[in-house]
Amino acid sequence: MSEQKLIIKGREVVGDDWTVLRAAGEAPSAEDVAALAVPAGKVIVPLATWLAQAEALAARRAAGEIGVWFGPDERPETLKGQLDAFALVAVDFPKFTDGRGYSIAYNLRTRLAYAGELRAIGDVLRDQLFSMQRVGFNAYDVRADRSIHDALKGLSDFSETYQASVDQKVPLFRRAVRAAPSANVANGGDAGYGI
Source organism's superkingdom (predicted)? Predict the structure, then answer.
């Protein structure tokens, strides 16, 4: 019997019973992706597969067995108004250096108000997890050749953030309590002192 696959969900390492459906080959055609056979069980299908087979997969989606994943060149607005019907939505990171998935996640959370499980899949490494969390991811399918327990530590690499984002709506300068300006500023002193 094989070991159950593990993912990070929230801030815990948990078992995962989902399968990510991918087309075989290095550069599959859009027709190949659309025509993929969706196996039984809980499956995260590519957007093109869902769009081509939505009617046939509708009952499985309603039963919580179908999720959908977006590639870095796909737009989440394609499923506007339908996203909450999926058990989960995933964003693929085909390469560590491809950051387009961060924008997709941010838009899913802010513009499309998606509130369910948002999973990062693909080339997901510890160094990315903190930033992924900031834009709205709450589940991470870490690359198989890396330690998932080490990757979990990446969610707490930093104790404070400066910019506003999905996880912190107010930037640091609005959250910090500052002392009143000193008389030194009025006399031509350093206006940036204490920032």
Answer: Bacteria
